[in-house]
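Revision sheet: structure tokens.
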Amino acid sequence: MPYVHVVFTVPEQLAPLAPGNQRLFYSLLFRAVSETLLQIAADPRRLGARIGVLAVLHTWSQNLRHHPHLHCLVPAGGLAFDNSRWIGTRRRGFFLPVRVLSRMFRGKLLAFLKQSYRCDELCFAGKLAELSTPRAFYALLHALRRREWVVYSKPPFGGPEHVLKYLARYTHRVAISNGRLLSLDNGQVRFRWRDSRHDNRSGVMQLGAIEFIRRFLLHVLPSGFVKIRHFGLLANRNRRQALALCRLHLTAAAPEIDRLLNEQQRSALSRSCPQCKRGTMRVIAHCATPEPATPNHCFTPRSSTLPEKTVRTWLPTRPLDSAASKPALAPLCLESTPQQLGHLRKPHIPEQPHPYDRFSPTLTVSIGALSATSAPSRQHSIPIHPLR
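Predicted:
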């Protein structure tokens, strides 16, 4: 199944609204792009089918300037509205007319912004304060409505292998990678870039450190904002059923994901959460295995007058003769009657930040004759360390 790469770009006159209204502006951008693709593809004059869309938000250009645009990955076809068949593109190498996409995208995004302005949801700070008046804002929208917006549709490319390579390049990128950074000397940052206006000619750009950081921070999205979204057949709520229908009509089997992944990607997938089976576990640190206790680490009280019914309890402690050192925990054996054991099951232990803290709690244990009439022969104060 071929896929199409469609790019929707926001005009440079409208882009300054985004930094002060990131969550609202980018959400409206996703909405305008998804509704444009789904509505035009559903038109019987174009494709007449339900399609799926995977959209990825990018906000930067090669020189780190603010340049918001959406990369959309779309299967070259869709399901009929009655789910009876698969409908492919009518011409090979062609998906949907970019002029129609551009004009509908322009109309929808401007309409959404106008509605947000009427609801007083937009923020105009700094140099944008002059746009806060209705006359200035509507004049901007009117000027943008008369311009042609840029929508680019690349020719369809191959199957799952190409899709995975594309996703690896575009989905989890930041404004600039470490490989493009060249040097930092005397407060000047040098990095490689490509000039798209001059046939992608490569060059080296030099910026002051403050200006470099300012440009980089323009592309930090709000906390929790989702920059990769799925629509149509690929939407989360009906993706499983829709993909099953697509494979049925295309007589295609489910792809073997393991065959398409490299060793590093397989390793990432194998670190799944043992509880929910969905999340991915990331190893932070490895804890050393406690060493086995030696006989010198165990303190066994000696008593010749212990009653017949005794209960044996094990508590973790340090050796009594080397309290300053921090060896492995060793078990302590205590013998007591069930009545006295009730006081030992839940000793009052203050909360400690770590089992190897310098100041540890102390448990006083009475050992000796444990009858109702006799008093204990001796007492021992033993430092204990609660297990975490």
